[in-house]
Specification:
The protein has 454 residues and is an alpha+beta fold. The protein is built from 17 helices and 12 strands.
């Protein structure tokens, strides 16, 4: 049976010369790996005088993930330089005992019962998106889904629509991703977070403005009378009170809120974009998904349990995230000697794990470049159980917001499909590139018309 093969970057035939590697790295990290990388389980070398190791072996990835939680591996300097301005000292960049403390305090805010609180916020953001799309037959969904994801984040975190302060947060976040948040070559060369920081003054300026806006939101909520019932994530964070830690300070809450906005909106928006893009290339799948949604309409969804009525939705989203993982590459630095997938790892080695490579690896998947949602049928938690599927990371540090994100995307996508039939209305070639997330190299146009009657 023939399956849809969506466009992807063409890998180089062999290793790139250093100058080409540097040039391509500044454009997209998923275009630097040659054809052999999709067959090898582990490979390494030296770049810029730094020992490197790329790990595609699922057992090796699990080993590193377990070591990450134990302090055997730390976030790389490059990651810290790019993420620190938005996340501060939040969960994403914390290590060791501090990470365990933060994870424990935050866990109650991401239980199924807590996420049920956010479902009305997701619906409200989706309705705002649809109201805007109703006004035009042609849309830039890459942009529109960013707006919707930011709106959903502001509502779920602060009960605040994307207007006023929410609008300023949205503008700052989008500008950072497109500007100073892009990796530069000196980020790869840096031995400290402050190395050549004067070359990226926009990061410090963003950090100052970002913290001012987030702090104002937290301060305003602190000034209000405490609510008996939480209505958003900020309420849950303010109420968090672990007996051993005494809860979180305003500065800690500020950094966690910053983390959830910065790490969540862009990845969520890209999942929505790539899923709809795939559905425009596979109309039969789009029709099948719409029929499933109509059989259990979004207005009947009031809890996470209700999402079980959309099993095909889950399978399509998981296949979309396999082909276009939200975070295509993450890096760690070894703090001591280790052995990974039969390779010796010396202290200071830059260890790289690429969901993009692993998800399209010839030895790990059947027809790895094809869009086959059937491969996830009956596997609702494959991102937790399949070691070759890591859209949210792996091991103890799997993204704490995975369930939150999947619920948000499912509801927005369901309401979109219930209202519209989407087709691609752009003759330009669309190629995925990786900056921080997997994103299209252009923002294509889509034609929208009312969804056909059942």
């Amino acid at each position: 049976m023939a399956y849809l093969i969506p466009p992807a970057p063409v890998p180089p035939k062999g290793p790139l010369p250093l100058w080409k590697f540097v040039l391509q790295l500044s454009k997209s990290t998923i275009s630097i790996w040659g054809e052999r990388a999709y067959d090898m389980m582990v490979f390494g070398g030296t770049r810029f005088g730094i020992a490197t190791l790329m790990v595609n072996d699922p057992d090796g990835v699990r080993h590193i993930a377990a070591g990450d939680a134990k302090g055997l591996y730390h976030k790389s300097i490059t990651t810290r330089r790019l993420v620190r301005p938005a996340a501060g000292e939040g969960l994403v960049l914390s290590e060791g005992a501090e990470w365990r403390k933060q994870r424990k305090v935050l866990a109650p805010a991401f239980t199924p019962g807590a996420i049920n609180l956010f479902i009305p916020h997701f619906k409200a953001a989706a309705e705002e998106l649809l109201t805007g799309l109703d006004k035009t037959p042609r849309a830039n969904l890459a942009f529109d889904f960013q707006e919707a994801a930011l709106d959903a984040a502001c509502r779920a975190l602060f009960s605040m629509p994307i207007g006023g302060r929410g609008r300023r947060l949205a503008m700052l976040a989008r500008a950072y991703v497109k500007g100073p948040g892009r990796p530069m070559i000196w980020d790869s060369l840096a031995r400290t977070e402050g190395f050549l920081a004067f070359l990226t003054p926009g990061r410090a300026l963003f950090r100052k403005r970002w913290l001012k806006e987030v702090r104002a939101v937290v301060d305003a909520r602190r000034a209000q009378e405490r609510r008996d019932q939480a209505t958003d994530l900020l309420d849950l964070l303010l109420q968090a009170n672990d007996p051993e830690t005494g809860g979180m300070t305003d500065e800690e809450i500020r950094d966690q809120v910053s983390t959830f906005i910065g790490a969540g909106f862009e990845t969520t928006a890209r999942v929505l974009f790539w899923t709809v893009y795939l559905l425009t290339l596979d109309k039969a799948e789009q029709d099948r998904l719409r029929a499933e949604v109509r059989a259990f309409p979004p207005d009947r969804v009031n809890s996470l349990a209700d999402l079980a009525n959309w099993p095909r939705m889950r399978a399509v989203l998981q296949e979309s995230m396999r082909l276009y993982p939200p975070a295509p590459l993450y890096t760690r630095v070894s703090t001591g000697p280790d052995e990974v997938a039969g390779r010796q790892v010396e202290p200071g080695t830059l260890v790289m794990i690429s969901p993009w490579l692993i998800h399209r690896h010839n030895r790990l998947w059947d027809q790895p470049n094809a869009f086959i949602a059937d491969r996830f049928e009956g596997k609702p938690q494959d991102y937790m159980t399949n070691p070759a599927y890591i859209p949210f990371g792996a091991g103890p540090r799997t993204c704490i917001g995975a369930t939150f994100s999947l619920a948000e995307v499912s509801i927005i996508l369901a309401m979109f499909l219930e209202r519209f039939e989407a087709t691609l209305d752009d003759d330009r070639k669309i190629t995925p590139v990786s900056i921080i997330t997997t994103m299209p190299d252009i923002e294509p146009w889509f034609a929208l018309k009312p969804a056909p009657e059942a």
